[in-house]
Design brief:
The relative contact order is 0.16. The chain is globular and about 70 Å long. It is 58% helix and 3% strand. The chain is built from 15 helices and 2 strands.
């Protein structure tokens, strides 16, 4: 019995569909792309380590602290550290909170469903009552505005969940750099495979969260819920941060009559795969903080790439953003491969047809992305 090859796709981004079906990535496989992607992910891994530690610290130690003045200090408040913060010689943890709030707002999958359930309401109320006990001001606030503190607990859950997600991703990216240095990573498909293997290895890792109040532990996201790394943090993160995002102040009008922001959240295209690198460095652009953080940890070989540019390192944040987008197309490739109904390189016609439909649905979302610019 002879199998009939599936016909070429007619999608406007058919080139990338066929590339994925051949075992390639959304990003073109060139030696310079490999160098750039590995280099930027090494820097990103260092930054994510700091972000992860701080998010988990805030979730654990700043629970229902209404004015957490020193939440970015991770429990170590010194004059020298305070001076560095005032001089802005520090990690911009505000960006981590921006990502957390984006995930909270867009929601998705099991964590979002749980946070709207009666089970969470009861667990949150138990923790709140323990926290407001012997605190008349907080107790009065809870009585006057009964929805306020539960919303703060929801936010704390996302602090913890995103911190746990980034803990895994940081380790994946730093190991990728080590393997590149050992010459085990030689191509963009190698990069994608490394990331996919890391995602699969931790796919079922439990996402849990509990706080200790006055010597007693309160489970806000118990293990019995079955929340896992891949489906309940990784997938919502890709949706909220890579694709949807939030409109950056100063770049679009928030005036409802201007119709510059879509009515539906699902139509948002402000994520990392769509953002124009040129505004990076402007006031009110959250990714500027991430690019500023990553510039401190760039490997020398990536600095050399930027110095060869027309402006050398005068526009380094813009160059970092462009490189970062390349790396995110690699991470997205890993996600697409991992969530596909069948292996993308299958030779079974029925499976190929199902994969084709799956890939064309993905490509519809890439139409206005910077996928062409990343491959220019």
């Amino acid at each position: 019995m002879v199998s009939t090859p599936i016909a070429p796709s007619n999608h406007p981004l058919a080139e990338y569909i066929h590339r994925l079906e051949q075992g390639q990535a959304l990003l073109q496989d060139t030696p310079e792309n490999v160098l750039e992607v590995v280099g930027i992910l090494k820097s990103y891994g260092v930054v994510l380590d700091a972000y992860s530690n701080n998010l988990i610290y805030i979730a654990q130690e700043q629970f229902l602290v209404l004015f957490p003045f020193f939440k970015y200090f991770n429990g170590e408040v010194t004059l020298s550290k305070l001076l560095r913060f005032w001089w802005h010689d520090r990690i911009n943890y505000e960006y981590a909170e921006y990502c957390m709030r984006s995930m909270l707002w867009h929601g998705g999958n099991g964590l979002d469903t749980y946070l709207d359930s009666d089970e969470f309401t009861q667990a949150a109320e138990a923790a709140i009552q323990a926290k407001v006990r012997n605190n008349p001001l907080l107790s009065l606030l809870h009585r006057l505005f009964p929805d306020f503190l539960p919303e703060q607990v929801r936010m704390s859950c996302y602090y913890s969940a995103l911190g746990q997600f980034w803990r895994v991703m940081s380790d994946i990216f730093l190991e990728l750099s080590d393997r590149y240095d050992a010459q085990e990573i030689r191509s963009i498909p190698d990069v994608v495979k490394h990331i996919l293997d890391g995602l699969v290895a931790d796919a079922s890792r439990p996402i849990t969260y509990s706080v200790e109040i006055k010597g007693q532990s309160y489970d806000l996201m118990p293990k019995s819920l079955g929340l896992t790394f891949l489906m309940d943090t990784a997938v919502p993160y890709v949706e909220a941060i890579f694709f949807r995002g939030t409109p950056f102040p100063g770049t679009v009008s928030y005036n409802a009559q201007a119709f510059q922001i879509p009515d539906e959240q699902g139509d948002f295209t402000y994520g990392a795969l769509y953002a124009d690198p040129l505004p990076i460095g402007g006031a009110g652009i959250p990714p500027t903080q991430l690019m500023q953080d990553m510039r401190h940890f760039l490997p020398e070989y990536l600095h050399e790439v930027y110095r060869r540019g027309t402006r050398q390192e005068d526009d380094i944040r813009v160059q970092i953003c462009a490189t970062f987008q390349k790396s995110m197309f690699c991470v997205t490739t890993a996600a697409i491969q991992g969530l596909a109904p069948h292996p993308l390189t299958t030779t079974d016609p029925q499976q190929q047809a199902e994969n084709r439909s799956y890939l064309e649905t993905w490509m519809n979302r890439f139409l206005s992305s910077r996928i062409r610019e990343a491959n220019a």
